[in-house]
Amino acid sequence: MQIELREHIAPWRIALAPVAAVAVSLLLGSILILWVGASVSEAYLLLVKGALGSSFALTETFTRSIPLIFTGLAAAIAFRARFYNIGGEGQLYCGALAATFFGTGLVTLPPLLMIPFLMLVGALAGGAALAVPVLLKTHLKVDEVVTTLLLNFVILLFVGYLLEGPWKDPMSMGWPQSESIIDEGVFPKLVDKSRLHFGLLFAVIGSVLCWAMMRFTVWGYEIRAVGHNPSAARFSGINVNATVIRTALISGGFAGLAGVSEVAGLKGYLTLDISPGFGYTGIAVAMLAQLHPMAVILSALFISMIYVGADSMSRAVNIPTYIADVLVGLSVLSILVSVMLTRYRLRWR
Amino acid sequence: MALLAFHHITKRFGSLIANNDITLSLESGEVLALLGENGAGKTTLMNILYGHYLADEGYIEVDGTPLPPGSTDAAIKAGIGMVHQHFTLAENLTVLENIMLGTESLWSLSQKQTAARKKLAQMSLDYGLAVAPDAPVSALSVGERQRVEILKALYRDARVLILDEPTAVLTPQEAESLFSTLESLTKRGFAIIFISHKLHEILRISDRVAVLRRGQIVGSVATADADRSSLAEMMVGRKVERPSLDPMATGKAVVRLEGVTLQNRNEVPTLDQISLTVHQHQIIGIAGVAGNGQSALADLLSGLSSPTKGTFELLGQAVTRASPADIVHRGVGRIPEDRHHSGVVGDMTLWENLVSEDLRVPPVSRGGFLIDQKACIKRAERLIEQFDIRCEGPEAETKLLSGGNMQKLILARALSPNPGFILANQPVRGLDEGAIAYVHGQLLAARERGAGILLISEDLDELFSLCDRIAVIYHGKLTRSFDAKSVTAGQLGLMMAGQDPGDIELPSEQTIEQAKASISDTLQDQGTKIHAD
């Protein structure tokens, strides 16, 4: 078998890659469903119904996609500059910490200012969580995958300490959770009697801003140049270290916003389980979107659909919810393979 | 009967025909030169012979028996030996170990070192290829390594030797010694295929020349009946004019290096106390075998590094910190050694690469932040037209360009702001004759306009045809520069091999114009001492 580079890549191939990847992952997933002994068509139908079949299901899917859009953007922009930020989870919690710290009574502003203020401090905290790994990378060439990944555990344990100790809400009946965000800081609901909040709007605005930055600004140009060919970028006068640091701060900021929106938009207070791994799933979201900021919205919706749908599917037929993790994992693997197949062709001899 | 014969070899890569119906034969005792521009199909043909590629049509015969296609083993067994341009030696092993490598079964527990040593000694004696069998390859010079490569092929009983651009890394003296080795081999009945695009070498060593153009043999002549211009014409398909260098009065100094030392991380100097002055209207050439400090010098002048010691003055102002952006804005145009590695971002568009050196300057961007795409594309269209870059348009991906057009893009970016100083590091490496003439023409035009140019090259021909003065770099040390009209290739070669210029009989000192220029410089900035240059 030989792998040959394609000289010209047809645009339809690039567009088709994620679709093909999703199809392949569903096909592979069906093997597992058969193995459990359930009917494949019924299982997938239940999954889709559970995710999109009612207004409740739909709002749940949208709600779940909000943090995924933010962490997806965080991964997408960092990966574009070849800065492999695996610490979205930790940065998310840093954003949540900042929102809780300032939002539970320390600062009181009218809602129109309070919400942007919480988002700002959350983004700053998320960025700050990446400051040490990125400086280690640019100045000492320490691998960022290791530092960002390990910081996740440090940050999570620190959140645990705060919630069990100084930040524990005395009225929480012993649960490790913080006091509530004051009313001025809580995101308004987007749809009445649902959990869907304004965070969705902010996430979409974030995607558009991110896309516009990549496409129309010097920063975006520098990120792409550094990601594709750092030595050529450096030669032509781009400050590679500054670009990587700036990109990392923006990336951490987006992950921090995911934390803010979960605390101030969804839960209203901080717990240790506000994120079931949104930081890590964001990487899958970004890969499936091929690092395109606008496609992140679609891929986040798709992945959140799988998670929400798998929950209700597993209640109806006897399939564990872990099928969702398997499907997401398979779709990431398939997208990697199909992206490779858009760039190369296989030839048998 | 021919020792080696290609019969109607055709090889296609998609729609590209790399080899088209090639029929060639080689007698024993003959040196066949394979001449052609880059991409003409020389390497493809040799890769088919050596079993790396399968020919779509045609076959190869050795001694009248067909060679099994697609098998390197079979090619080696049939007596084909390849000496690659980039050596394939294990540096940590000794000469003897390298030569034996791959000749013994993986499963044999004993090494037949004694027998191998005897055979090697006999070969060294027979062919006049002296090597120390127990020396580690890492301790050998480039010329010696090439000798080991040749011995490696002979050890496997090769009868046909293929040498792919063998002189690219050699000094003229080393090349001359290679040629006498080849002569002694052909006397013993070996056949040699010599791949090169250096015409004078081909005329010197070969018996017959086969010229390839666009995958086809366009001519096969006895070397005795050929000359430089006829071969060049055959290779390119039209008459090639060598650039001519009109003497010009030089202006004031644009770059002045004084005792510059550059250390790498291990504190080993990569540049050692070098001094150099480039004036307006002047091209100074840096000759030297690859890896003697050229990259360090280029990095310094490109703004990628700053001197550890010494002074670096650019257009009258000192440069103290390394910043490519700063260097560019002070008026330096840079042509990097490796287009793909540091010249362009292949995955970005042409227009993006054309504006990469002044991203934060209007009209490329507004407020140093918002890129004005319309203005950029307009500029790109102008440059594409002006520099004749063959492409689909400004929005095409840069990696789709051919080597020559990619180099034109880099020239357009570097030369269009009319820089006062131009650093050209191997500007024609890997280009075909047409593109080479274009690049040289652009450099000469820049000299005419008043730029000072530093040309780093491993090709003495190029240096002689373009440079006013030539200096030699060896182990990070730079000699003073010599008038290109009076210094000879032999003298430069001795310096490239490390001889002190003081020990070589050299042409007299600077020309009158040079003397005038340096005096007027001295008058301009009082207190600067006159430099040898």
Automatic annotation (TrEMBL), chain A:
Localization (cell): Cell membrane
InterPro entries xrefs: ABC_transp_permease
TM region positions: 12-36, 56-79, 91-109, 115-136, 145-163, 196-214, 291-310, 322-341
Bilayer topology annotation: Multi-pass membrane protein
Keyword rRNA processing: no
A Pfam family this chain is assigned to: BPD_transp_2
Keywords: Cell membrane, Membrane, Transmembrane, Transmembrane helix
PANTHER family assigned: ABC TRANSPORTER, PERMEASE PROTEIN, GUANOSINE ABC TRANSPORTER PERMEASE PROTEIN NUPP
Protein name: ABC transporter permease
The organism of origin for this protein: Kiloniella laminariae
Automatic annotation (TrEMBL), chain B:
Highest taxon of the lineage: Bacteria
Record key words, sorted: ATP-binding, Nucleotide-binding, Repeat, Sugar transport, Transport
Domain ABC transporter: 4-239, 255-500
Coiled-coil stretches noted in the UniProt entry, renumbered to this chain: none
Pfam families: ABC_tran
GO molecular function, one term: ATP binding
InterPro entries: AAA+_ATPase (IPR003593), ABC_carbohydrate_import_ATPase (IPR050107), ABC_transporter-like_ATP-bd (IPR003439), ABC_transporter-like_CS (IPR017871), P-loop_NTPase (IPR027417)
Stated name of the protein: ABC transporter ATP-binding protein
Annotated organism of origin: Kiloniella laminariae
